Known about the structure:
With 105 residues, the chain is mostly helical. It has helices at residues 3-28, 39-66, 77-87, 92-104.
Amino acid sequence: MPAGVVQKFFITSMFMWVAPLAILYGFNHNLLGLSNLSPNAMTLLSGFAAVISVNIVIAFYICMAMKEPSDKHEPDPKFLADAKASVSQPTGEATTSSQSQKKQE
């Protein structure tokens, strides 16, 4: 995993904590100039704004992840050979055992 991906994840995670807390702090200490609202309205508005800020950070992180270069992934050749061998095995044993179970019932 490249270091840039980890750094972007860490920074985005920090914003997911800092943004809602800053919004709640700003509303509770009247830093946004909305002191004419009732306490109930202030609580609801600050909560909605905090939730929206987290969703904006998540959307921003998704956009950053979508822009990441994606190299073509090549599967392990041994895994492919084992998978092809397991698919090409005859399934006659499974059908005969299921038929014998039906006879026993």
